[in-house]
Amino acid sequence: MEIIRVKDYEEMSKTASSYILEKLKQLDAPVIGLATGSTPEGLYRLLVDENKKGNVSFKNVTTFNLDEYTNIEPTDPNSYHYFMNKHLLDHIDIPKNQIHLPNGNAEDLEAECQEYENKISEAGKIDLQVLGIGVNGHIGFNEPGTPFTSRTHIVTLDESTREANSRFFNSIDEVPTQAITMGIGTIMESSEILMLISGEQKADTLNRLLNGEVSEEFPASVLHKHSKVTVIADEAACSKLENLE
Ligand SMILES: N[C@@H]1[C@@H](O)[C@H](O)[C@@H](COP(=O)(O)O)O[C@@H]1O
Description:
Elements: E1 2-6, H1 9-26, E2 31-34, H2 41-52, E3 62-65, E4 67-69, H3 80-87, E5 99-100, H4 109-122, E6 128-131, E7 153-156, H5 159-165, E8 178-181, H6 184-188, E9 193-197, H7 203-211, E10 229-234
Parallel strand pairs: 1-10, 2-3, 2-6, 3-5, 6-9, 9-10
Antiparallel strand pairs: 4-8, 7-8
Helix pairs in contact: 1-2
The structure holds 2-amino-2-deoxy-6-O-phosphono-alpha-D-glucopyranose.
2-amino-2-deoxy-6-O-phosphono-alpha-D-glucopyranose binds near residues 36, 66, 67, 132 and 161.
């Protein structure tokens, strides 16, 4: 696991954006895994800017998002469909049929999970998966206790996750209780993983990721088993790191 330590949120976003642009240049038909949350918003803003300036094209890019709430319309401002359109997808030159998010509104959610897995397989593999991290170590919506072998599945969200995400809703009662998420096994099949971590509220989380044990109780710890992971973390997120060199 390689750690890139940067000053602040802006520098994290810039470093991530340059990293992704470089990757996109190397591949003819890149398949990129995308994440939601406040952490990648700055990265997406920079990618939109680069696309507008003509420095990068997304015409050959295929995307797969990690997760989506269930029983929420894609047009609902709190859906991850809406989030992705607003922050990235509506503003870049990517063909719509190359964009994939789980359909949290599907009649048969189990079938939707299988179909999502099939679509990823058909695309080959995810070349680069962008990840954020929940305070409790969740990746995608894989909460503590999720098997490392899990595939795309329906999850019941932890109360702590619903609370953390309630800042986007009018009240916690409106936060969905379930979601569809790519499984940990699915995420681990990506050729490469880029994790972004920012802010003091993630300082204990980052310390546990780097210095804690590999355990299903802390989902992100699985990344120690992956051969190509880069973590970009800002000073505030690094503020509680033990074993500083
Ligand atoms: N499902 C998403 C995760 O993919 C994300 O990493 C996490 C952290 O979000 P934030 O970046 O807002 O802290 O929130 C949500 O639960």
